[in-house]
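Usage example:
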Amino acid sequence: MIRVAVMGYGTVGSGVVEIIDRNNKEVSAASKDEVSVKYILDLRDFPGDPHEGLFIKDYKIITDDPEVDIVVEALGGIELAYKFTKEALLNGKSVVTSNKAVVAEHGVELLKIAKENNCSYLFEASVGGGIPILRPLYTSFCQEKIEGITGILNGTTNFMLTKMDEEGCDYDAVLKEAQAKGYAEQNPEADVCGHDACRKIAILTSLGSGKTVHYQNIRTEGITNISKIDFEYAKKLGSSVKLLGLSRDVNGECVALVAPFMVSDKSPLYAVRGVFNAVMVRGNMVGDTLFYGQGAGKLATASAIVSDIIDCAKNIGKTIECPWKDEEAVMADDSKKVFSYFVRVKKEAFDEVSKALGIKEKVSVESAGDETGFVSEKISEDKFLKTKEDNSNSIINYIRILDVEG
Amino acid sequence: MIRVAVMGYGTVGSGVVEIIDRNNKEVSAASKDEVSVKYILDLRDFPGDPHEGLFIKDYKIITDDPEVDIVVEALGGIELAYKFTKEALLNGKSVVTSNKAVVAEHGVELLKIAKENNCSYLFEASVGGGIPILRPLYTSFCQEKIEGITGILNGTTNFMLTKMDEEGCDYDAVLKEAQAKGYAEQNPEADVCGHDACRKIAILTSLGSGKTVHYQNIRTEGITNISKIDFEYAKKLGSSVKLLGLSRDVNGECVALVAPFMVSDKSPLYAVRGVFNAVMVRGNMVGDTLFYGQGAGKLATASAIVSDIIDCAKNIGKTIECPWKDEEAVMADDSKKVFSYFVRVKKEAFDEVSKALGIKEKVSVESAGDETGFVSEKISEDKFLKTKEDNSNSIINYIRILDVEG
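Running the assembly step on the lines above writes:
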């Protein structure tokens, strides 16, 4: 018998319990032993819940119980989640989680503790919800040098941008709709400012490179400056605007960035609509691959957690090795980040700004009024930012262009 | 030291040797031991090849050498490949392959022999080339009941259909181009008649269901009846024509089919162009996921083989378990296969045929001449085939419609 303790009975935690119940035959068969939930930790009461007898309020009961093999951390937040995870691992219990904040902040330390205590720390559900992406990275792509990772990693913003694209809505209107549907929180900052995507690309890049990438070192721009007219320009370019988290290995240095991008309809990422997520991985041998699915949602996220539970169950007393080590990745400076930019500029400054950046293509839309758009030559980030600063009164907005080949 | 023997030094076999050379650091690190090629079996000579000293012509040298841990079967064909694989497994050597014909024909038997001899038989590269799809099925989706698998599994036909769609080419012209580019063989039957896709969906479904699905029991229709005008109709329907291999679990019975389908631009499969492959997997918990990448090509296919080599290397003396068992899947009869059909019919027979099948939507294109098109109601396969037979002189062509929801 494999005994699981679930910490936190919110959306994700209750989803995990539901899957262990509903698909118990599959879960137990794959684990080679019956899997059952022994405790559910939550400060709230759930009278009438079919698992009423399992609820506890003191996490010590879990960490002290030698019968518990695997702990699901579905608490959210950082401090308590980190503390409980650490204690569980120190007691030799494997921990699985969808908590990207804890993974991005403390992942490499927790992996080390797991190893020292012959148990595992797994977090497939922390990136891309139900999409199998971390396990393929460390089981199917070990033979590859990972050259690049490009992801639509946040379902909320992808829902919003898709609506703006398909229905010509305004930013404020789609944000309200996303909040009404429960996709966006009342304080939507973590999503719309790109913080969530930033932690996810940090985790992906750490796994892909085997080195630690601190999310704090990744420039992160959200979608709050994106408006209706940007999509009109995008259509002219055969593109759509997507919030991407991306990283590239450039001669052993790491270029990483979270920002809205113009994504051409030639890219498989173009067709990723609504709350779906997708991650493209480029290996030096396999070329481009893409993994697509529900990036959030109760059962999709819980499914990824249960896949980790099964992996832990099959490896009781052992550590499932993770390529992410504590050596720090060398982050490339801005002179090595090269993009083409779509730029909207006041008409009177067009000549000056387009000359400074180099111009590949002019783009006009009917509703432009006093502005004009163009696509710049490829230019390094430091030069672009300098030009932007020098012309802060005349550059209205800019969006990087995803290089489909790179 | 992990010693590998490569049987067959064609495109795939030489690709495997190349990856073990070029990415040796990654391959050996992941394997926790140095990986090297000890023998290359090929009846041809390769004078001047950097591995000249490794070539042998007698497979017995491999099966008799206790130092060889892992054998790559990249011979192609069935009989010899099967015989050599079996002998290697009987001698406790793990075998990895991209040979879908052998896997579809003898997979379950070879898996059993591997288990009895404490070694492994892996075949990630047999489906979807470089796309990690089999390993995710048996490591990331064990907790799922797999409800459906839908794949663009053959790069040659997808290249041809994409050309017909995008450039309005004729079937004969694109076949010639595919042959000139080396995508299609001089005898293109295995690709264009769907036999290749059939073996792949049989393998996928066997892994997804855990039961044996015989490829011989899967109705297989190729793309030889698809012509330019079908794409004109498809455009009117917001669709494209794709050759799909699909399977569905319908109350414990297996519906499986290989055929051209109308795929709506709402489906993520719509955007899969050219030689790329993609596999959608629907789990009862995780919902729809999609795996996309290069379905063929030297290094992509070899990359998947090397991922299997690493897995075997990490499990020397043990068997990597595969969910595919020898219990046979119950195949649904035609009364349980339900699709909508796009049908082209002679104008004078439209009333009769559309009445027999039920009509959802009439579709007209300018170049139609004496025919007209329509979309039928959902109808079971047996009823459809009966109507088709009764109207064989007036039904010009038909294409099933992929239900994006199902």
